Amino acid sequence: MRLTYPDSIRIIRLPCTGKVDVIHIMKAFQKGADGVYVVGCLEGECHFLTGNLRARKRVEYTKSLLDEIGIGGERLEMYNIAASDGPRFAEVAKEMHERIMALGPNPIRGALKRKKAA
Amino acid sequence: MIVAERKPIEEIMGFIRDCKRVLLVGCNECVTVCYAGGKKEVEILASALTMAFMKEGRELEVKEVTLERQCDHEYLEEIRKIIDEYDAVISLACGVGVQFLAEKYFRTPVFPGVNTLFMGVTEERGVWAERCQGCGQCILSQTAGICPVSRCAKRLLNGPCGGSTRGKCEINPELDCAWQLIIDRLKELGRLEDYETLIPIKDWSTERAGGPRKLVREDLQ
How large is the ipTM? Predict the structure, then answer.
């Protein structure tokens, strides 16, 4: 297919999105990620039955937590894409990239840079 | 178990506004089971507070510790060596743990990270409900194992009241009428005649009405 997607995206592979925990997403933001999105299998298609459904609930909870601390829940999203659906994967990557570009950098980026420099 | 829920981050931030180093103490017992103050929640709160401070251009050092229990001397002793290095402690234990920690470390400010709600059960994953109010005089033997003190809005000892409709309580259509539950179970047990026996006036002095309670077992002292 030779599809391209924005090179701002780093993929972290997991056996199932059911493995994603709130703390994993929080740590990503704490380390300076501008946005995070979790891509699971289509609903009803989870090999482990409910992994992707659980992931969505955790993502929703983390969004509220990010809102609470002023990082912004809109920097986080959950998508369900079939493993064979390359075009949709590229489309979502672009969509998320554009959303984050519009939002600007993670508000703690500045503090992280200063800390590194010190 | 004792059921609790995390306080809003903003409220916790308010407690530690002037702090630079904070000790975040979780508890491995009830609050772990209800996902409010175990090791995982300590990690999440530490991360959230660190980011919230960074966003304001300030730095916060958070040390994470999760103790086996916060309602026993021996486990609270585990932080004695490090506690003086911190400006304040946030305890994610229930109100009991927070108080015992504060009592033990008199000179360190101790703040609660959770709101303690009730003694209850896990009805299903993510759903907890009250089952006991610690009234100090259990009457479950007379009420088919269903407690009207904790589950009836009016704490009626001889119910139901007129507000019971189709098995539900008048204060909330989703709330089961405790007395309906009692009658249903008595029927099932073939002990409906127990319902005819009036429960005498309860001595509420063993409940909170009699002031803070204490239990002493000399055989164990």
Answer: 0.94
